[in-house]
Amino acid sequence: MKKHSYIVIIGGGLAGLTSAIDLIQQGIEVTLIEKEEYPKHKVCGEYISNEVLPYLKQLNLNICDLKPINITNFQISTSSGNLVKSELPLGGFGVSRHSLDNFLWEEAKRLGVKLIIDQVTDVFYEEDTFGITTGTHGTFTSDFVIGAYGKRSGLDRTLKRGFSNKKSPWLAVKAHYKARIQEDTVALHNFKGGYCGISKVEDEKVNVCYMVNYDSFKRFKNIEKFQEEVMYKNPNLKQFFENATMTFEKPITISQINFEYKKPVVNHIFMCGDAAGLIHPLCGNGMAMAIQSGQIVSKLISKYYHGMEKSRDELELMYAKAWKKQFGLRLKTGRVLQGILLNPILQNITYGIAKVFPWLTPLVISKTHGRPLV
Ligand SMILES: Cc1cc2nc3c(=O)[nH]c(=O)nc-3n(C[C@H](O)[C@H](O)[C@H](O)COP(=O)(O)OP(=O)(O)OC[C@H]3O[C@@H](n4cnc5c(N)ncnc54)[C@H](O)[C@@H]3O)c2cc1C
After folding, report:
1. 170-256: which CATH topology?
2. What is the per-residue pLDDT across 104-126, written as a single tens digit (0 to 9) for each?
3. Does 297 have pLDDT greater than 90?
4. Residue in 17, 18, 22, 35 to alter for ligand 1 test, most ligand atoms within 8 A of Cβ
């Protein structure tokens, strides 16, 4: 197997796969290394903002094939169940990661991206060339590396990224259910120590995904007990769980979800998606950001490839600048919102304000989202 590629992408989630598809469509050779087989379920709220649609269309990715659910409304409830409803300024759609990531994977394969199933264990940069070491496929070399390996990976430690040794109290739980809910609505229900997103995805499935602080969780023996003892205190969640049937054998979970500040360029690697920064999930914008960061990096690398940009250093500066401009404010707003929502007093004050000034909710939502990507 030829081991040199112009670009190596580490990680085949949304950021990695969209940038691979974009680059190969521009005639640039790409190898993508993903550690797990597709299709697979991922812990995610599975609500994706419509801002990605023009870009996906430009890439000839027909998301309609996946039969996504059109979502136009939003509701949020306090831990005690008080509900605020709002329209979503731009709207979005519900589609499972099981379908979406697999669809992009198959599309990348069809277009000729070299797809390798393996774990990247190290990346080094010497004399203007990268070496990318894998578990079983040996070492690849490339001119550029895109790090699209998600929110946390052993690679962060290898690359000595500051946050990689820090513990995080956040864990998340996700499962699909059979249940009757309002199809056009994504709901965010608060409970002590966390919040739970509920929305519909394709094939009549309802996705439930919640994030919770470990301190709130650890006193309970299992997920069911936690749901009953803590989450059921919000009557909206009680009503949902009591009338829903889980279709997974058991929920899937992740822990150590880290929201620390990260750098978008590390050791000359362009970090994309969650590897460059994770927005608080309550904003429902992480997937769009992953796709958009893939778009930004592909555009820049393509310009360089076609001789329109001068040097690697300039390219790195331009990427870091563009990343900050597009996502800096969204990440900050997400942090502030999470702080408010997890504080019971602030949560109730905010509820009171949102009831009196209903136009405020869509305004706040728009601060955590971007414009349509063209
Ligand atoms: C609880 C929760 C709920 C969320 N809900 C929503 C939501 O409703 N809407 C929304 O827009 N966003 C949501 N998000 C955010 C969204 O899931 C992420 O922002 C998005 O998945 C980021 O995509 P990515 O491509 O960067 O990473 P990922 O999708 O995580 O992909 C990274 C890939 O890299 C692979 N990988 C990792 N390490 C290696 C390695 N060493 N070698 C090879 N491969 C590797 C992994 O297997 C994985 O497939 C949520 C996040 C959480 C935690």
Report:
1. D-Amino Acid Oxidase; Chain A, domain 2 (3.30.9)
2. 999 999 999 999 999 999 999 99
3. yes
4. 35
Confidence tier at 1 by pLDDT (50, 70, 90)? low
Distance 65 CA to ligand 1 centre (A): 22
**What residues have CB less than 8 Å from 204, skipping those under 6 apart?**
178
pTM of the model: 0.95
Specify whether the CB–CB gap between 337 and 282 falls below 8 A. yes
200: CB partners within 8 A, 6+ apart: 69, 71, 94, 181, 183, 206, 207
What are the residue ranges spanned by the domains of the chain?
A: 3-71+91-166+257-367, 170-256
Q: Which of 122, 145, 132 is nearest to 268 (CA)?
A: 145
* pLDDT at residue 367 in the model: 75
**Phi, psi (deg, nearest 5) at residue 83:** -110, 135
**Which class is domain 3-71+91-166+257-367?**
alpha beta
The string of pLDDT tens digits covering residues 142-161 is: 999 999 999 999 999 999 99
Residues framing ligand 1 (Cβ under 6 A): 10-16, 33-36, 42-48, 119-120, 148-150, 153, 155, 172, 197, 209, 211, 257, 273-275, 281, 284-288, 290
Q: CB neighbours of 358 closer than 8 A, spacing ≥ 6?
A: 84, 86
Ligand 1 mutation pick, 37, 52, 274, max ligand atoms within 8 A of CB: 274
Q: What is the pLDDT of residues 190-210, one digit of tens each?
A: 999 999 999 999 999 999 999
Question: Looking at ligand 1, which atom is closest to the CA of residue 153?
Answer: 38
Nearest residue (by CA) to ligand 1, atom 37, is 149
CA distances from 353 to 114, 150, 278 (A): 52, 36, 28
